Model the fold of this input.
Amino acid sequence: MIILSNLSEKSQLPSFFGMAFQLIFILLIFALVLYLSYYFTKFIAGAKIKNMRRANMKVIETISIGFNNLHIVQVNKQYFLLSSSKEGIRMLAELDKDGIQIEDIEPSFDKYFKNKIKETKGGKYEK
Done:
């Protein structure tokens, strides 16, 4: 680092412009790391969602209860209630389709905002 090397030499003090340049450079590197981590995280999440969407199997709903999780899983046209914990995964029951309420939940807000734009006309909310 330039600051440390300049401080070790007692004859020269670091200049204001040199220190300002170093501060701006460090802030730019920090912003670049934040930017890259944001887009890398979005990329990984998108790949994960694509892997979870299969034609024959879907996780309909998951709820966490302490260290255990309950999952409703659809395999073809059958529904199962599964429990997962540190000890493993167990099938608790086979469920009827009539007893399950399935809601189509989008992972993003795009659908929500598109509906709000359609509902709003001229700046006034219409029912």
Q: What stands out?
A: The chain has two domains: 2-49, 55-127. The chain is about 45% helix and 30% strand. Helices lie at 2-8, 16-52, 110-119. The CA atoms of residues 117 and 125 lie 10 Å apart.
